[in-house]
């Protein structure tokens, strides 16, 4: 019986990450596999972000993307920008392995905490975070302005 393992993402994981994104939200189809590959190359080679994947039987079944950031009113934090587990592997400890690995990385890097946003409708996800010590802090509205 193979164990789940956590490792840093590689550029060659782009197709698996693309499929995980679609598993999370089919509307992400417009962000092509090739764009995911380009983003992975940029993030891995030009940022301090951490992208971890979970493998099981040589299959990437989940990923988490943490991005360090500095604030003028807080100690440095890591922001979770993406966190997806393939649907058939949910509720089997995969998400816990991923988030705990990111927490260990953040703690060893001297970051003061981890922040994440979760859509109000994702009640199961909220319960997952709360069981791991994450506290709900505030409702927010997100705004975006497209520049292209």
Automatic annotation (TrEMBL):
Keyword set, alphabetical order: Transferase
Molecular-function GO terms, alphabetical: acyltransferase activity, transferring groups other than amino-acyl groups
Presence of the UniProt keyword Transmembrane in the record: no
Domain N-acetyltransferase: 4-148
Alphabetical list of Pfam families matching this protein: Acetyltransf_1
Alphabetized PROSITE patterns for the sequence: GNAT
Presence of keyword Transferase: yes
Organism domain of life: Bacteria
Name this protein carries in UniProt: GNAT family N-acetyltransferase
Annotated source species: Paenibacillus lautus
Phylogenetic lineage: Bacteria, Bacillati, Bacillota, Bacilli, Bacillales
